[in-house]
Amino acid sequence: MADVVIQATNLSKELTSSLLRRKVRILSGLNLKVVQGETFGLIGPNGAGKTTSIKLMLGLMRPSEGTAEILGMPAGDKRALAQLGYLPENPYFYSHLTGAEFLDFAGQLFGIEKKERSERARELTELVGLAEAADTQMRKYSKGMLQRLGIAQSLINRPQLIFWDEPMSGLDPIGRKDVRRILFHLKENGTTIFFNSHLLPDVNEVCDRVGVMNKGQLIVQEEVKNISQGGSYKDLEDFFLEVIAGQGAR
Q: What share of the chain is helix, strand, coil (3-state, %, to 5)?
């Protein structure tokens, strides 16, 4: 049996509303397991709790209840973080740096030696289609180029596990195709992948399993092959809409 690399148990989060000064539960009782080598897609409407789930599992937020473990260690453990790659929904970049300089900086944070950092930066800019722009300052990058660079930095440490929050955001169809190619490359190398997306065709093509989230709850989990037996993303779309409608009817 494959090792469990992500485990959330009754994971919940409450925030205090600044307007009404009352507690609002934005995530409730998340129970989830992802095994080594699996690609898991979390889908749901805006505000469903997808980004909150990732932040809790990474240790970027503290849960109000429950626990999360990554690679067998508590969320936020530095030993686990050293083996992770993370692309946030709205990444921040130092715009005065070139793409290559930013990747070198990311590599330094992981303690990677200079020669390996240089080689790794070159490999990754080629992988994400930024080789010709590697020495250009990021202030001149388009949103799509910045997204590609964000993907590259998440891979600088050759992670065992990646968390990507809306990785296709800002990408044109060619960029989305490139990201799918990268995801398949990572899958072939045994990387465990967890990502959020609104783009169901990409989820359908890449993921082994999906979870549907709405109103702070993970409603259902299912293998993609059991949903989209004919390979059409429309099957996944119909499944998603039925699940969301079913929750609203309760």
A: 40, 25, 35
| Element holding 34 (H helix, E strand) | strand 23-35
- CA 76 remoteness from chain centre: 16
**CATH 3.40.50.150 is the classification of domain 1-83+199-250:** no
pTM as predicted: 0.91
CA 214 – CA 161 distance, rounded (Å): 25
**pLDDT tens figures, 85-126:** 999 988 888 999 999 999 999 999 999 999 999 999 999 999
CA 62 to CA 109: how far, in whole Å? 23
| pLDDT over 70 at 231, yes or no | yes
The per-residue pLDDT for 22 is: 80
Distance CA(229)–CA(54), nearest Å, equals 29
Give the tokens for residue 154: 């998440």
- Looking at residue 170, its amino acid is G
Number of Cβ within 10 Å of residue 236's Cβ equals: 23
**pLDDT band with cut points at 50, 70 and 90 for residue 1:** low
pLDDT of residue 17: 72
Q: Where are the domains of the chain?
A: 1-83+199-250
Residues 138 and 91 sit within 8 Å (Cβ to Cβ)? no
At 214, the amino acid letter reads N
